[in-house]
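Notes from the pairing session

We agreed to fold both candidates in a single pass and log them together. This is the raw record for the first candidate, unedited. Please don't reformat it; downstream parsing expects exactly this layout.

Candidate A
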Amino acid sequence: MAELELRNISKSFGDQPVLRDLSLQVPDGSFTILLGPSGCGKSTLLRIIAGLDSQTAGQVRIDGTVVDHLPPAERDIAMVFQQYALYPHLSVRENLAFALTIRRTPRRVIDERIAEAAQLLDIEPLLDRKPKDLSGGQRQRVAMGRAIVRKPKLFLFDEPLSNLDAQLRTTMRIELKKLQQRLQATMIYVTHDQVEAMTLGDRIVVIEGGRIRQADEPHRTYAAPADPFVASFIGTPPMNLWEGALMTEGGKTVLKGNGLTFPLPAGLASSHSTKKSAVTLGIRPEDIALRELPETLQVTGTVELVEDLGADLLLHCRAGELRLVVRTARRTDKIQGQTVKLFFPVDKLHLFIDHRRIDTPTAPPA
């Protein structure tokens, strides 16, 4: 196990910046997820940690020691890639033993570690097979086994489940989470899939444009996103967001935008007193009510589409120029084309000013 610290990491390819002054601490024994869209720099950051790429500026520290000058083989890091990288001419047993054999590890130790990893990953019956005789999930287990037998300080995973079908990805997510808990190992996992991030990690680092937008526990990332990007990236369907301006009309603060005007309660309005301030307001699809509740804002819209997910319904609505998605577990008689009243509980609203979250007396708890 190890503690990782990144200090002011920047990386450019030519004149194109990929990472911008990025700092991060990864606690010993944690399962940290690097989450972001394709091209945000998360895989480049993983390769810098592993020593496969060099940063333009900044430091990488493992257990307090600067490792920038060390080649990958001397950093005591194991990396599992999207591609399984198994040697096709070797058996599973030989694939597991390969790195240890190169290091001239005693045969007895190699056999012990292979037996331990095989039992842990439930691949004991596969040890004498070749990679071509394995399923995708079995190959991924072998790839993880190659990392485990090395007993590294740090495990790095670069979208290892993306080649698997949806059902197998779900199974492998559960197995990987159990594996981390058993090993108590420090793991860093790269993905663009927010479902993987929420279910696997005990900490999520959201990256966009080479910068960290938020680093937090999964429930806080969902319940109290730091900015509109995080709010829109975390959650399925994503948070409903609309831009507008705070204005004073008739002595009351109102939000105007997207063809809508509605008064804000005092607790929310007082969070930012500057008139005509540009703001973004958000609410999760599951937080919009179809019946009136205490302390709610109300808009009237039209149902444009109904998606039946079995346990839930998604109502795609239009109010003014604003499109909203409502998630409800209630069976409803609202059908496409009907007018519907939508109620926004004040304590479920998220307010962002200058692209930063503003905590208010009515905001959801962080």
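Candidate B (folded immediately after A)
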Amino acid sequence: MALGKSTTKNVKRSILLGLFLLSANVGAEALSLAAAPFETYVADDGEPSRINSLLHEAFAKMDDTQVDLQIMREAFLGSAVRAKRVDGEFAYIDLGEKQQGIVLSRPYLPLTLYATGKGPEVENVKLFPHLKGHRVAIENRFANTPTFRLLKNIKWSRNPSTYDAFRQLADDRAPFLITSKLLIDEFNLLLASVDEELLRFSAKPLLTSGFRLALHSDVPNAQGFLSTFNAVIDAMQQDGSYNRLLGIHWLLKDVNNDGVADFIANSRITTAASPLSTAYALDNSLPSDTSLFIVDGVQYADFDQAKLSLTAPVTPRESLLDPELYDLMLKRW
């Protein structure tokens, strides 16, 4: 039976308090937040972009708040932030850069970087040293950071875009690629659509970070804005909004602070046949026999009860990567 009407009651109270404080301190002028394009995450050309979708919905829930999201080239982003031509970044990833005068939100979307490749040997990779001496494709957005500059014994093949990084694998110029698990999943959807063997990936993530908002500390009520944002995100992660916006059937998160990950679903997209093993983790907790099952914000003690609410038809999802853009690559695979 259901354990409660919603997992978000207390969170909503904190949101209302945060909204009151926010409306009292933030004027009509919009916050300007910028990010560089990142395929399937951030885009300004109408392409699928998970972060754009998440943030537009989150900011819409924050009354009396106007936020202007700007997309600019990576080369211009850093200078725009340093010169304070924008109030901050909306897809900030902490990979060792020293930042002063910046306040951060909690991570609103995890970033788990795996090694991936065509062959089974990649499944034995558990640590960066296991890639020593190998040529490894990587995007510049990761390679040009302190964290990756410290990894000296790997032959990095740097690439300006996600497409170029995957092309290193397609053309067999690099046996391995470092990229996010979500991007590996999207590329595998493309491979499955043309009956090609799927990419394999490392036994565990080689690096875990997350996307955050980063504001200049002198932005009026910056901490109040971020506190309210954190509360809104927490509610969206528990009520099924994230499943819908990310296009992922099952999510994992510890929603009741017992140290155990709980399974979260959305009845509009999650089916009773959707495997729990593919659940995407939003935090570092692990599931156990005491995990709750949450559908549209309603808690259930076990999967048998929860799946009675999962009546969505089984409809395979298309990849968020553009099949026309990747068509030639897939033909050469």
